[in-house]
Amino acid sequence: MQPKTIVLRYLFTYFVPDLLSSIPYHRDIFYLQRLTQRRRQIKFILRCTSLLKVTRCITLYAYSKHSVEAYDLNFTRYRVILSLIIFVAQFHFFTCLNIAYIGVATYNVFGNKQRNRTFTMMYSRMFFETTHVLLASKVGFSHQRIGYLGQKLVVGVCWIISRIIFFYVISQLITIISSVRASNIKYRQMVRQLHEYMRYRQLPENLQRRLILYYEFRFERSYFKESEILNYVSEQLRQEILLHGCRKLVENVEFFRNLPLPLIIRIVSALKPDVYMVNDVIIKVNTQPVCMYFIASGCVAIYTKGGQEVCHLEDGNFFGEIGLVTEQLRLASVVAVETSELYRLNEQDFIRAILPYPDLIDKIKKIAFERTEQTMFIEERSILQKKIFRTITERAQY
Length: 398
Description:
Structural class: alpha+beta
Strand order of the largest sheet: 1-8-3-6
Number of helices: 16
Distance between the termini: 84 Å
Order of helices and strands: HHHHHHHHHHHHHEEEEEEHEEHH
Radius of gyration: 34 Å
Number of domains: 2
């Protein structure tokens, strides 16, 4: 956005409220001389204009939404916290409004004997009184006779607005609880069916624990029929949803860096999520390559034909591309070191996606050959070490 556009937008939106609400009304400005009726009116007006800061609540709401997106916070938790903040903030705002209007309008918030008390004490007492009024536990202020029509209107408007905020917060919380409970109920039903199935099959206890851990990791205690949801949206929305769901993968995996957006969307649309538990074999050596994998979270270990460990791959890495570009059997085995979430890209989708990009094919081949050389070097070194050990053992016997 151009600086001129930013300035003009600010001038026609928040400039006037920010300017008026920033005018100081500190007591030293008005108490240098005796307060006259005119100065009291000016001070009252300045106190009221300071309440224009409430217009910045819209900005606060926008910034909070940006923070949720930037830091990938839980949206349900964000809605709960935001609703509670709105509910509590109303008491602060109406307390300030009552201090500015009701207290100043009569110049006697707490009575003549308490006029010189600190603002903190005045705020605390008025907050207590305002809370009572807004919660409908009483009408009016104990230290204050609300006799003027304007004062009655202020109290009435505050009460009506607080009721609207109260019902809004309650409706938000009910909606959140209902949505969370609906997904949790479906998940519990699915887990109940899983327990019945395991009992029917008489599966061993170790396998039962692995299945339960798999379900907890895969569904995160919430179940949605994602395929049915995606079937009812347009192709454009489906691509945006998939790209948003894999945004961390796209950001972390070096494979996706500097790739054109259409290619990224094509690859992401073809990815299939897989979850592997500890010690699960993901790829077996000497098998036909049919796919490659991207690691979203977790850790896997690469082993040669002889069982020698080559390396560990973690979040943001990928593997399995060697067989797809060389058309050879798998040169290594891959085993999950911890519970890992992977994304699988099948061979046909892989070829269809990268075929129009020869530079990318050359880049993948280069990485594949480097990894092949590393694997072969470790395998040859392992074989050589075994021969040396066998020779030393044979000589020791003689």
